[in-house]
Amino acid sequence: MMNRQVLVVEDERAIREMIAFGLRRSGFEVLEAEDSKQARASMADRRPDLLLVDWMLPDMSGLELTRLVKKDKDLRDIPIIMLTARADEQDKVTGLEGCADDYVTKPFSPRELLARINAVLRRAAPAAGEAVLSAGTLTLDAASHRVMVGEGTVPLGPTEYRLLSFFMTHAERVYSRSQLLDRVWGGNVYVEERTVDVHIRRLRKALEPFQAADFIQTVRGAGYRFSIRPV
Ligand code: CA
Predict the structure, then answer these.
(1) Residue 208 pLDDT more than 70?
(2) What is the reported pTM?
(3) What domain count does the chain have?
């Protein structure tokens, strides 16, 4: 089996090397970049399985780099974990809206980082043996990790894909935010409930051009429901 490849983008050499050392010891292949320019050159050369991006980089912020990656059709499926020294909540939510899949606040232990990486990789991996699902105009192909409407592909990040996949297999039922966190994010990962709203918003935005945003319905005081019937 090929080792999973992680690209670590961090200008502080001591931190970068500490992370790289821990990951290599856990069986990952590690590439290092000290700014976004090096990171982009590295990704153009070889697509990593996961990006670890520090919030503060010398040439552009980690958030800007994350947005660039998510705009690139060849790279946007790469899961991203942000490293941040700022612990306040607004930054965390902003980081997620900027398309990171998770964040880790400094200082963190190598063990915590490894747990987050494994959780994000697990979520991003296509579930084996899943069939093609369809609901309304949407078709989800688990093998290719793609959601189609007619001939068009709906551009989805890994979390939105997981969310939609869960909804399509659990249609016509209402799920609270905490139930969605449990089922879609996995019980071991600590994320706040409003993270769900952030990803619901992004999912709707992605579905909007395909006239499918209305499938994701808000049920006041209860949570969210996937339904192909009009509200
Ligand atoms: Ca830094």
Answers:
(1) yes
(2) 0.56
(3) 2
